[in-house]
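TASK: fixed-backbone design
INPUT:
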């Protein structure tokens, strides 16, 4: 089972009731009796931190099962880059925030393999931040990673850290002009540049094709053809327009 639903617990601090070896898969505490009973359902788990301040050591474990009113929990050991250790009775156990609960700083090639859904990582080498979704990492802002898109019609590569955005709009009855060419303005310009656009006809009398001539951050210039290589001159044409840019 993939444990990807990270649970929280406010103000939870307790101590082990009995010792745990480095290979123990269960732990006991009198305060475990009040924990949730649905750990393991839909990948839900509770991260706990065991620590010895005197020795300066700690371990993160994940609670993956707990029965109602039981003082015992089932745990997965040595998570989040820590090592499974032997812990004596009385060891402090806390539901404390770990680095996985904030914005991690990692290179693109070292994203954590055990990240929960919603885990956020600042990819310093890519100058962006990503978030863990159902089965992949996705850009926290935008519709795609900059490195996965482009270059656009201008031939310029998309810079690392660029936030890819979409523009979609219905354009009713625009006039093509004497040469069949028209410029369509985006409802809201892209902050920097448009990479490419996709016009789709909704006009049966002028079914295209549309040929994109140029794009800017604010507009698309296209030539409309009347079903073949004949330009649709001085015509009112309607279409759907989608574009991607940054």
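OUTPUT:
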């Amino acid at each position: 089972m993939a444990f990807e639903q990270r649970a929280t617990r406010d103000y939870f601090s307790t101590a082990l009731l009995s010792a745990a070896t480095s290979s123990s898969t269960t732990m006991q505490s009198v305060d475990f009796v009040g924990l949730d009973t649905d750990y393991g359902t839909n990948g839900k788990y509770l991260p706990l931190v065991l620590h010895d301040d005197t020795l300066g050591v700690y371990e993160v474990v994940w609670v993956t099962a707990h029965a109602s009113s039981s003082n015992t929990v089932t745990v997965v050991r040595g998570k989040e880059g820590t090592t499974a250790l032997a812990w004596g009775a009385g060891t402090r156990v806390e539901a404390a925030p770990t680095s996985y609960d904030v914005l991690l700083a990692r290179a693109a090639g070292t994203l954590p393999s055990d990240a929960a859904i919603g885990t956020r990582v600042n990819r310093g080498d890519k100058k962006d931040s990503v978030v863990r979704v159902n089965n992949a990492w996705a850009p926290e802002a935008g519709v795609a990673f900059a490195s996965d898109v482009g270059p656009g019609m201008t031939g310029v590569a998309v810079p690392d850290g660029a936030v890819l955005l979409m523009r979609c709009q219905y354009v009713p009855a625009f006039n093509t002009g004497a040469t069949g060419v028209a410029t369509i303005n985006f409802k809201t310009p892209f902050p920097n540049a448009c990479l490419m656009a996709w016009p789709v006809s909704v006009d049966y009398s002028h079914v295209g094709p549309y040929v994109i001539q140029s794009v800017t951050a604010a507009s698309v210039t296209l030539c409309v053809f009347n079903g073949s290589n004949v330009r649709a001159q001085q015509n009112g044409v309607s279409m759907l327009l989608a574009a991607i840019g940054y």
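COMMENT: Residues 54 and 91 are 11 Å apart (CA to CA).
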